[in-house]
Structure to design on (349 residues):
């Protein structure tokens, strides 16, 4: 029997992969906006940009600069150069991924553009891990970004309109987060090594929600489905994970998720965490339902979650960025808002 045939099958259950040679997370970076820097996690971010325009002329250019800075910071922290990165996997919320394409162009790294709405960090880490474990790349950079003003302009109302926000509305996080996945542990930091042990790829779930001011409700069913499938595929209980971390359901969506899972006799209330609830102070910062956007899960993961794993406070987490797959075109045409959630199992060794 060949060595290849002797290896265990990588796919497991209906929607999951258990990696034979789990990729290492050797570097991570977080670039945040001023409001994010004033929140509970502010001291943990690598860079806080006080200027929402980041010295640029438009919101979109500002977001591109945030992504470029996050990518460069992750490469710098790993002690690498751009040419050491085999592939760059990235995405954002803007039409045709313009924040990404203009942001990473000058890095000159082979590029895959991804769109999973606010779940894009989970999608990028999933595909990046497949490439590394499969032997198709030695080092992969996964990065996502979002910008409050750019997202409001595209999906809701431009800031100049001065509209009132309902309490179900979330606040798009301004920032960008990046991780480098590698075949070998070449991290120059101390403490436990961090590896991606497996993934569960989400399905598109549509419960008929049409209100872009209530994205938590649109994304919660997808989070429920992916969590349920992950537990089934790997044959584990919720307490297998120190934390089950959703991306940006916020306060409204998190409550819905807990209720939906209880209908399947799954209770994650004791170890669930939502990045959208953690990144802002709900009372002091007036963000209503919490944070959202691609950067919400990305900078919470790179700034906070990895720190807990590195310090040994957590051993294993299920990182589950969530996204609402609507556009300004679909919304204006009266279409529903399908949801998606991609799960990544991250462990400290």
């Amino acid at each position: 029997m060949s060595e290849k045939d002797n290896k265990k099958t990588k796919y497991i259950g209906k929607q999951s992969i258990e990696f034979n040679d789990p990729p290492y997370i050797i570097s991570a970076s977080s670039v945040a906006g001023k409001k994010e820097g004033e929140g509970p996690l502010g001291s943990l971010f690598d860079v806080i940009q006080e200027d929402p325009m980041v010295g640029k002329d438009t919101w979109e250019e500002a977001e591109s600069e945030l992504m470029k800075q996050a990518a460069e910071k992750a490469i710098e922290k790993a002690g690498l150069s751009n040419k050491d990165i085999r592939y760059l996997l990235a995405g954002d919320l803007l039409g045709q991924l313009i924040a990404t394409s203009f942001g990473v162009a000058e890095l000159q790294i082979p590029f895959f553009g991804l769109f999973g709405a606010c779940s894009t960090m989970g999608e990028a880490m999933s595909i990046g891990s497949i490439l590394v474990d499969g032997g198709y790349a030695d080092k992969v950079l996964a990065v996502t970004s979002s910008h409050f003003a750019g997202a409001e302009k595209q999906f809701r109302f431009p800031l100049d309109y001065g509209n009132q926000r309902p309490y179900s509305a979330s606040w798009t996080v301004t920032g960008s987060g990046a991780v480098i996945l590698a075949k070998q542990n070449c991290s120059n930091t101390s403490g436990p090594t961090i590896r991606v042990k497996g993934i569960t790829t989400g399905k598109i779930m549509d419960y008929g929600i049409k209100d872009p001011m209530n994205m938590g409700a649109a994304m919660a069913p997808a989070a429920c489905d992916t969590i349920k499938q992950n537990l089934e595929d790997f044959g584990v209980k919720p307490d297998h994970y120190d934390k089950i971390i959703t991306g940006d359901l916020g306060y409204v969506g998190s409550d819905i998720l807990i209720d939906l899972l209880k209908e399947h006799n799954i209770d994650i209330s004791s170890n669930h965490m939502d990045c959208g609830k953690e990144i802002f102070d709900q009372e002091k910062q007036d963000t209503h339902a919490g944070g959202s956007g691609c950067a919400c899960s990305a900078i919470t993961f790179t700034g906070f979650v990895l720190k807990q794993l590195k310090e040994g406070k957590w051993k294993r987490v299920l990182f589950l960025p969530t996204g609402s797959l609507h556009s300004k075109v679909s919304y204006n045409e009266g279409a529903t808002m399908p949801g998606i959630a991609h799960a990544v199992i991250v462990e400290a060794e």
